[in-house]
Amino acid sequence: MRDVAVVAFAQTHHTDHDTGVSEPELILPAIDEVREKTGLRSFGFTCSGSCDYLAGAPFSFVSALDALGAWPPISESHVEMDGAWALYEAWVRLQHGDVDTALVYGFGKSSLGNLRTIMTLQLDPYYLEPLGLDQLSMAGLQASALGAPQEELDEIVRRSRADGRANPYALDLPLEGGEPPITDGAAAVVLAAGDRAGELCANPAYIRGIAHRIEPHYLGMRDLSRSVSAADAARAAGVGKGRVEVAELHAQFAHEEIILRQALELPAETVINPSGGPLAANPVMATGLIRIGEAASHILDGRAARTVGHAAGGPCLQHNLVTVLEA
Amino acid sequence: MPSEPLVADHVLEFPGGYTRTTGPVIGRFLTELRDGRIVGVRTAAGRVLVPPLEYDPDSGDAVTGEYVEVGPAGTVTAWTWVETPLEQHPLDRPFAWALIRLDGADTALVHAVDAGNAKALEAGTRVRPVWSTNRRGHITDISYFAPEVTKIVSPVKAAYKITASRSLTHFLEGVKRGVFVGCRCANCHKVYVPYRLSCPECGIAITDEVELPDTGTITTFAINNLPDPRAPEVPFVSAYILLDGADVPMIALVGGVPAHQVRQGMRVRAEWVPEAERTLSMSNIRWFTPTGEPDAEL
């Protein structure tokens, strides 16, 4: 297995409304920032994560390539998933050994449509989508299955929102509530393999474990009070092999944090979502990648030696990706 | 001066909708649904999946060809209340989404429950499907689920014609004139109001009639928060009022004072409606209102 590290991370100053920038215009500042941090203008591989349904336009990721300057032609791929899975694909690509650097980005403008009901379109078209089950309804069912005390949930929201206010990239939101904010934003990460990692940055955040697992889609086939797939991914990534100083979890709702914390077997001393997490900024399709980027930042800045980034996709935490980063 | 941003509406829609093949397993479920039956499919391991899937999510093995009728009743295992339904939701009034384990199934079905209000639901609530009148082989052939019948409402209404007794008529005639008519027992000397024909303590007829003043003292009271056609406002106070010179209190409304200021020992006076509006009824007294005198010792 080749050593692969996060060597740069950048994100936009996320907004709760459409500022009128096009997708390439949204992405460009984050791409420019990681180019500047690494000094790289071209990459061995490029992979992005986005969802056409957010903008209601087909192949929006293709036009987004205008932010890269894909000429002469570049080696590029895309996942219709959170950018965290684009990072996974790039990590796999770097394992081939013929390229040493990869640019990964994720972006989304969820302000354009009605995100709550656009999320209905991810459901199976026979049993769930025709019922019109929306994002908040799905979350409500999972919260009911977990049955956590309201005070515990409120405290997670309060902590996340307070941390978010201190994060210049996140939104300034009330300390109460509980719904993830509608957010426009983007993020970019540069991965480097082998010796290149040390050449491109002083403190590479080495990916010592990365795995994703998925479970059945239909909500009634699962025990929604726990996340078996997150637990399996965490075991495969080796989360428990050492102390986790910081964990950035892709928990869009407070009850998801409780479920994930349990699945990843994180002890009380692990700091959860010091960035504020998705409750403070939720640029859909970049939110998971930002979790990995934020977790990596603690190592890039020399503030931590071992962190975890988590990303989720699908209804009620159906699909989970866990990354263990070490100095 | 920056120009206004250019904004346009944009709708993503495939006219007529996508045509999707169901495959044999989902197709069987939807066909049975059109016939008003709910079926699950048995896995090789013996579990019954509802709604049926082509592969066992536990093992990835193909399911067996055995379909099992389940329900129609089931048990709610988790639920979430929707106070403001969205246009795409199955009900246009507040309802719950629920995971429902139908009788005979090993998994839960996601559907809507029309429970009236959130307090009517809990994990364990028994529900049954309410079928669409126009079934076409679609998950919405079940319009929604409804809780099983556990209680009924029984309205009771009986009509009577009541003739006031001689003593009550005499008392109300007094009230119409603006006086309270009472009586004194010749044996125990107690003064009763309203006027009555016998002493409840001595069991003898009373003949000695007395007129009482319209002032008195509150002995006890209740603050009522439910509207009553006889009371002018909510909350209102009903009180026992011991008219001056009487030995038993009379029940009446207290008004003209905030409810929380009403107290035992408070001195009150009847507030009469204008003479022209009076009838043979207690409504001639709007209420008793404080006189402002110092409280009386009870």
From TrEMBL, chain A:
MF annotations from Gene Ontology: acyltransferase activity
SUPFAM superfamilies per record: Thiolase-like
Keywords: Transferase
PANTHER family: ACETYL-COA C-ACETYLTRANSFERASE, NON-SPECIFIC LIPID-TRANSFER PROTEIN-LIKE 2
Record's protein name: Acetyl-CoA acetyltransferase
Species annotation: Nonomuraea endophytica
UniProtKB/TrEMBL annotation, chain B:
Native organism taxonomy: Bacteria, Bacillati, Actinomycetota, Actinomycetes, Streptosporangiales
Organism from which the protein derives: Nonomuraea endophytica
InterPro entries found in the cross-reference section: ChsH2_C (IPR002878), ChsH2_Znr (IPR022002), NA-bd_OB-fold (IPR012340), Thioester_dehydratase-like (IPR052513)
Protein name: DNA-binding protein
Domain of life: Bacteria
Domain ChsH2 rubredoxin-like zinc ribbon: 173-203
Residues in ChsH2 C-terminal OB-fold domain copies: 67-131, 209-273
Pfam families: OB_ChsH2_C (PF01796), zf-ChsH2 (PF12172)
